[in-house]
Amino acid sequence: MEYKIEKWEAMDLLVHARDFHTETSEAEIPKFWDEYYANDAYKKIPAYLAVCAQKKTDKNEFRYGIGCKASDVEGVPEGFEILHIPEYTWAVFMCVGPMPNAIQDMWERINKEWLPTAEYEMIPDYDIENYLPGDPTSQDYVSEICIPVKKM
To answer: What is the pLDDT along the chain (152 residues), one digit of tens a residue?
Structure first.
């Protein structure tokens, strides 16, 4: 599993977000992306990042947003919000393959293989998916999963 550890400064992300339940998110998030691309108003906002914000409740839910760095656009369009992401150390995992399977498979590997044996633990706050330029249906498409971590 290919990954790197990086220190990132705090950043603001501009996202169109919705709450999801962990039990249904694998099926519902791809539909959310389809809805995003079907909305002509949203086509003005680059959609190369997705961010999960863990809810501070006992429910199995999280807030998931699609968008970009806030510095990429001017203002906050209707239907969008700014998320402030604190400065963290991040574990950045490379995913290769068509979406959404490649990203979903890598999440499973991170949770089942990497986290149980890593010298890092995940900080339960935000995680980011970075969708790089290219054809997301291609077998060699590259994306990244970025999770905030701290040394154990």
So the answer is: 889 999 999 999 999 999 999 899 989 999 999 999 999 888 889 999 999 987 655 678 899 999 999 999 999 999 999 999 999 999 999 999 999 999 999 999 999 999 999 999 999 899 999 999 999 999 999 999 999 999 99
Sequence letter at residue 69: K
CATH of the domain at 60: 3.20.80.10
Domain limits for position 91: 3-151
Q: Residue 7, Cβ neighbours under 10 Å: how many?
A: 8
